[in-house]
Amino acid sequence: MPEPKTISNTSPQTNLSQKELSPGAWAQLLLLGCIWGASFFSIRIAINEIPVLTSVLHRTFWAMLILWCVVFVSRLPVPLCPRIWFYFLIMGLMNNSIPFCLMAWAQLHVETGLTSILNASTAIFSIIAAALFFADERLTLHKTIGVSLGFVGVVAVIGFDSLHALNTESLAQFAIIAGTISYALASVWARLKLTGLAPQVAAAGMLTMASLSMLPIALYVDGPIRFDLKWVTWFAIGYYSVIATAGAYLLYYRVLAKAGSGNLMLVTLIIPPIAILLGRVFLDERLQSTAFLGFALLSIGLLVLDGQVIRKLRSR
Question: What is the mean pLDDT of residues 83-96?
Answer without folding.
Answer: 98
